[in-house]
Amino acid sequence: MSATANPELLVSNEEETELRRGPWTLEEDSLLIHYIARHGEGRWNMLAKSAGLKRTGKSCRLRWLNYLKPDIKRGNLTPQEQLLILELHSKWGNRWSKIAQHLPGRTDNEIKNYWRTRVQKQARQLNIESGSDRFIDAVRCFWMPRLHQKIEQNSSSSSSNILNYENSGANNNVPSSLSPPQGEFTDTIAENHCSLQFQDQTRSDQLPFENDNNNNNNNNVNVCYNPIIYGYGMEGVNLEEFPMVETSCGGISNYSQFDYYSQSSENDWVLNNMGDALWNNMDQM
DNA sequence: AAAAGACTCAACCGCGGAGAC
DNA sequence: CGTCTCCGCGGTTGAGTCTTT
Predict the structure, then answer these.
(1) Compositional bias (Polar residues) at which positions (predicted)?
(2) Does domain A2-68 correspond to CATH entry 1.20.1250.20?
């Protein structure tokens, strides 16, 4: 392959046919749509030639799957979809196509773009390395509960079903390991506060969340829920740098992460920098 | 109103896996 | 086996659009 001076054209010397690049025209779209309507999709290289498109098979496939396919959803991702992306990404990482399989009508490209432009942007603004333990915990403990709250707000006006999972096409394919318990998030968020199990008991009094095992405290943590039930992995956690704590938010965290919290004079833990920032940024998404 | 900067997202690229020969 | 082709995936780019100054 060799590019010509015209960036929109690619010349194949072997076949001496001009291959178009760049944005698709209406005419090309129409050709592709009508060809697939008659012959079906697949065998993309052959399809491109047979349809009379001066495009690579790859380009045709991409155009069809990401843009022309009839069942593609348009518009912003719903909070339910965003939540599902966060959940599935925490499980599978950058397996965009796999994640997309659980969001009907959404493409891997769209999800990838969402992650890069929205999620990673938040990480940058907070000076957190996206994918780091700290970021993962931030997502778990602040972002996801906020999405749950959004979902709750949205559905409360239209339905008594807090999560409305049955009615959400985006969630019809949620793996059972990721499915939320019915009604779990109708509870006040404070009831789902993080608990900690300290390996270094001598330092537990400095930590912001009360150990929940005794279940007899009233230190309400505003926005943590318990995503262990969602099948979060614990992979990639650095166990060496700090004494580890396990949070009911599904993460094993090191001490440094809790620099983000502060304690009020009434022994009532409140969210500090990270929580507020994420909270505010969430509203922009 | 205009310029600059930030953001979005469609499209391209390179790579690796699968299957045919 | 090795080679070739096709396909699909994830990473990246850049033109167009939007927002801010």
Answers:
(1) 161-180
(2) no
